[in-house]
Amino acid sequence: RLLSILTASLCYVTDHNMSKSKSAIRKIASLSFPFKTPEPFLFCVYHKDDYPAGNEKMEAPRRGNGMDFDPNQKWRMYHGETIPGFPQHPHRGFETITATMTGLIDHTDSLKNGGRYGQGDLQWMTAGKGIVHGEMFPLINTDKPNPLRFFQIWLNLPKKNKMVDPDYIMHWAEEVKKVTTEDGKTEVTVWAGELDGVKALTPPVNSWAADEKNDVAVWHIVLKPGAKWTLPAAKGGKGSNRSLYYIEGKSLQVEGEKIDPKTYMDVNAAMPIEVENPKGASGVAELLMLQGKPIGEPVVQHGPFVMNTQQEIMQCFRDYQRTKFGGWPWKEDAHVFPRTKGRFSKKGKKEELPPSTKEETKAKS
Hints:
This protein is mostly beta strands. Helix content is 12%, strand content 39%. The protein contains 3 helices and 26 strands. The strands form 6 sheets. It has a 7-stranded antiparallel sheet with strand order 1-20-17-22-15-12-11, with no helix packed on it. Strand 25 and strand 26 form a beta hairpin.
């Protein structure tokens, strides 16, 4: 009888472990600030600031202290003094992907480029051998709030591309690819990669994401109450890393397991994974997915510089002190554009407008 009990217990443990091993979830943890990211990603942060109405100068009602990152506040000044944001600062050796949902961001850089984007736009910047840029959040509305939501994601560059010329491209909201399920309850914004035959807009030519073999994907997943959807397995299979970030919502199940709000999940990219926002949920559930094959090279980072060796990091500092990566051509460290300026991107002497603005201009003419 004792042998039967031991055999039954062993079978239960074996079956339980087998069922656990079949789950695509490998690790669950609370979200940190910034998020924990897998290779080839270096950094990710979710900005959610409920900014109030601004004054005539697009300023906030309180001054910043230079390091305002308090997560317990409804909104933060970050490094801004009177206007929230990040005044001029350098980067080398990686890319920034700034993916917006609501609100507006003013961009300026050491190449004399500038722009205002947001409300679903994405800016993809290759820092390469070095660039200085500013990212400010002007409070354009004086008669109503100025909510801002966006992700900033740092994607590493392979050694061969770390010293390419800096550049950036705009993916306007009107052109960003989305996939919606037949029942209309799940919408996926495909910022990078491919889903159900829908390919994201083209990344910069020197990006790790430019080669489809690297399996880079960045998706924003929105599940309405009653939505159930399965993320397909990654094309790169076990060779790809994949992480999920549960950023908004109160009711989410992943692989049938209830997930607490503000949760990070490391998942097996070789397996499909089911996500569900149960019927009766009080609102939508939102997730960010980061995926890609690791670059597989040493990563040495010091603040805004990411290289392969400590010697290269020291060279970054010497180069920046000597050249300022082209210098800062703007009058203010925290430059913003006039309130009346709409969304635009100016590179050199060429100004690009989003498709909706072009159509409005044509209609008026």
